[in-house]
Every structure is written in structure tokens, then in C-alpha cells.
């Protein structure tokens, strides 16, 4: 406790009185720790810790979810996906309310078992997430999946969206806390672009409050010294090169694509889709899926919150029409969504 108090004291000493500092975290688990620990209340008034696009459920395109709903209505199909995805609202409802043949899984390996146990059905794994969940999906493809298992990929690349945020002057980011789970895959080197090209201190941190405070302290030290670097206070888990085997598998089965981020729009080179070589496993191609035009949810500002341009409390629906039990937007569904987290802590 004394060590934590010492870190907080140092943080206060490094924040200038005449300037506002904005540090963005890009990880739902980081935001969970920050919010539940009350960390923001311990910071100087002119130091903001902004939640960014750290929730893959929140940015999964509405079109992909609607396609998943429609696929689940086929009698020859069983759709499998992660639990949070079942509840994400769309103009057509959610998978749970409008889908028919679907099952919740917690690991891609469960999709293999379901396919093996249902050889008379086509099993579609609706695979979503950042690099952390892309690697296991590539892993099951490397192992060899049953002929009746197909992939509906909705994977996104974290460094690309972070670079978009840097270029947005309205956000005004002074430092990044890089996501710990993603960093374990891509390595600290993946974030060098922010310190070297944009002059923004970037620190990889773990998920305990003390470790996150060390990350914030390191960013403030760099700002004070006027020298931006990529640092790592989570060295027991994250290496400079990351997980090379996972990266090789991801590159073998997936290629970079121009994709849509819900509430944000199309971002060039920001997603991953199966390579043409494996198109026979690509549900988009096999089932001839078409893109559905995205609709805006009246009053919902999830896209603005994901970009770090507003806090959940700024939304008129927050804690009123929109709650974890009755989510109006995707940010209220997942435990990694800022609205869901803030609802439970305010």
C-alpha cells in the first residue's frame, strides 16, 4: 500500500499545473481495473485517463451480426460464438432473441468438438476479436478442422485503430497505455510507431492497479523529459518480439483487409480475413453473405465513446433506457465495454 501511495504521489508531482494531460487505455480489462479501483479519483484533476477502443464486441459490425442471425435460422447450420456476441443489439435484434440454431462457446476448440458431434450440420464459428482471439482461431485451423466447420471472421487490428486515433486532433492523446493481452501476441515492438513517428509515449502495462499506475507514471516521466519511448512495465508476460509462433500462424491463415468498425466506419487495413487459399472455410464466400447497411441507434453514442471523444455518462440513454439487462448499444453488453463498466461503478 505504501508503494502505491508513493507512485500516486510521484504522479501528482509530474503533472504540470498549467496543462491538461490525456492518457488513453486501449483495453477493456484495463478500463475495468481503472474504474473499479477508483483510480481516476486519485489522479490530479488535469490528468484524464480515457477509455478507448478496447472492446472488440463494441466495434463488431452490425452487418456481421445480422448475417450470423440469418445463418443460425438455417436448419442445416449451428452457429457458435462467444457469449457476449449473443446479446449485442442490431436493427434485427440480437442472436439470442432472433437467432435459432446457435450455441455459446468459450474457446475455438469447442467449435471443433461441436462439429465432430454434428456431422450432418454445417458449424459456423462466428470468430470476433483483436489479435488475442485471432491467434487461437488460426491455431485450430493449423490443427486441422472438420470439413463441416466454417469461419465467419470479424477480427480487428489494434495498432491500426490506435493510429487513427492519434491523427484525430479532437481527441488529443498525450500517451497510450497499450493493451496487455494484445501485447503478449504482437510484442512491445508493435507500438514503436507511436513513440517514433508521432512522439507519443506508449507503455505496455498489466492488469493490476499498481502495474497500471506504474504505466501512467512512466508516461508522465517521458512527457516531462520531452522524449517519447515505447516502454514495458509488464515484462513478465510481454516480450519485445511478442509471440512469434502465434504471429506466424495468424499470417499464414489471415490477410489484412479494409473493414468496417461499428459506429466508426471503414478503416483501411484494419481487419483480418481468411486468405484466398482458405476461402473454402470462409463463411462469407461459402454462404454468399452480403453486407447489410448499418443503422444508427437513436440516442446511442457508443461509437463516440469508443473513440475516446465522450465518457459513457455523456450518453442520454446511459443508466436510463440503456442498462446491462436492456442494452441499446454494444458498449453496454460486454464486461469490457466502457458503458457496462461505468454502469457498475458509478
What is this structure's SSE topology?
Elements: H1 2-14, E1 21-25, H2 28-36, E2 47-51, H3 56-59, H4 62-72, E3 77-82, H5 95-98, E4 102-105, H6 108-117, E5 122-129, H7 131-143, E6 149-156, H8 158-166, E7 175-178, H9 180-186, H10 192-196, E8 202-204, H11 209-225, E9 230-232, H12 244-253, E10 254-261, E11 265-274, H13 283-286, H14 302-306, H15 338-345
Parallel strand pairs: 1-2, 1-7, 3-4, 3-5, 5-6, 7-8, 8-9
Antiparallel strand pairs: 6-11, 10-11
Description of the molecule:
The chain is α/β, with parallel strands linked by helices. The protein has 2 domains: 1-294, HypD, alpha/beta domain 2 (Rossmann fold); 302-345, no CATH class. Helix content is 37%, strand content 18%. It has 15 helices and 11 strands. The strands form 2 sheets. A 6-stranded mixed sheet has the order 4-3-5-6-11-10, with helices on both faces. A 5-stranded parallel sheet has the order 2-1-7-8-9. Strand 1 (21-25), helix 2 and strand 2 (47-51) form a beta-alpha-beta unit. The longest helix is centred in the middle third of the chain and has 17 residues, at 209-225. The two termini are 24 Å apart.
Given helix and strand content, the structural type is alpha/beta
Instruction: Describe the global form.
Output: globular
Taking the sheet with the most strands, its summary is: 6 strands, mixed
Using DSSP, what is the number of strands?
11
Total separate domains: 2
> How far apart are the termini?
24 Å
Cα-atom Rg, whole angstroms?
20 Å
Biggest sheet, spatial arrangement of strands: 4-3-5-6-11-10
Overall CATH class of the largest domain: Alpha Beta
What is the fourth-level CATH superfamily of the largest domain? Answer: HypD, alpha/beta domain 2
- Low-confidence residue ranges: none
Total helices: the number is 15
User: Helix and strand succession?
Assistant: HEHEHHEHEHEHEHEHHEHEHEEHHH
Strand content: 15-25%
The CATH architecture category of the largest domain equals 3-Layer(aba) Sandwich
Mean pLDDT: 96
Helix content: 25-40%
Question: Could you please say which CATH topology of the largest domain applies here?
Answer: Rossmann fold
Amino acid at each position: 500500500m505504501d508503494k502505491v501511495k508513493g507512485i500516486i504521489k510521484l504522479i501528482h508531482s509530474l503533472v504540470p499545473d498549467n496543462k491538461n494531460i490525456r492518457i488513453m487505455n486501449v483495453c477493456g480489462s484495463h478500463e475495468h481495473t481503472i474504474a473499479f479501483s477508483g483510480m481516476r479519483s486519485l489522479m490530479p484533476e488535469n490528468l484524464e485517463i480515457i477509455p478507448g477502443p478496447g472492446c472488440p464486441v463494441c466495434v463488431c459490425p452490425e452487418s456481421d451480426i445480422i448475417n450470423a442471425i440469418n445463418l443460425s435460422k438455417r436448419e442445416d447450420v449451428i452457429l457458435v460464438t462467444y457469449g457476449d456476441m449473443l446479446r449485442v443489439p442490431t436493427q434485427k435484434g440480437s442472436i439470442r432473441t432472433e437467432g435459432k440454431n446457435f450455441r455459446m462457446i468459450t474457446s475455438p476448440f469447442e467449435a471443433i468438438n461441436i462439429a465432430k458431434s454434428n456431422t450432418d450440420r454445417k458449424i459456423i464459428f462466428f470468430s470476433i476479436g483483436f489479435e488475442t482471439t485471432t491467434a487461437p482461431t488460426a491455431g485450430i485451423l493449423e490443427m486441422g478442422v472438420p470439413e463441416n466447420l466454417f469461419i465467419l471472421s470479424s477480427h480487428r487490428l489494434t495498432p491500426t485503430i490506435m493510429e487513427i486515433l492519434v491523427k484525430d486532433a479532437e481527441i488529443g492523446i498525450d500517451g497510450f497505455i497499450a493493451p496487455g493481452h494484445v501485447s503478449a501476441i504482437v510484442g512491445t515492438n508493435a507500438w514503436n510507431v507511436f513513440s517514433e513517428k508521432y512522439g507519443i509515449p506508449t507503455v505496455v502495462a498489466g492488469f493490476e492497479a499498481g502495474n497500471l499506475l506504474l504505466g501512467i507514471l512512466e508516461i508522465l516521466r517521458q512527457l516531462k523529459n520531452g522524449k517519447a519511448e515505447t516502454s514495458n512495465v509488464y515484462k513478465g508476460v510481454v516480450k519485445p518480439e511478442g509471440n512469434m509462433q502465434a504471429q506466424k500462424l495468424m499470417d499464414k491463415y489471415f490477410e489484412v483487409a479494409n473493414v468496417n468498425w461499428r459506429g466508426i466506419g471503414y478503416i483501411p487495413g484494419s481487419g483480418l480475413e481468411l486468405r484466398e487459399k482458405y476461402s473454402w472455410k470462409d463463411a462469407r464466400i461459402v454462404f454468399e453473405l452480403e453486407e447489410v447497411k448499418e443503422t444508427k441507434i437513436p440516442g446511442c453514442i457508443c461509437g463516440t465513446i469508443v473513440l475516446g471523444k465522450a465518457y459513457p455518462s455523456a450518453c442520454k440513454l446511459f443508466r436510463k433506457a440503456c442498462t446491462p439487462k436492456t442494452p441499446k448499444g454494444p458498449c453496454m453488453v460486454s464486461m469490457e465495454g466502457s458503458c457496462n463498466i461505468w454502469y457498475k461503478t458509478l
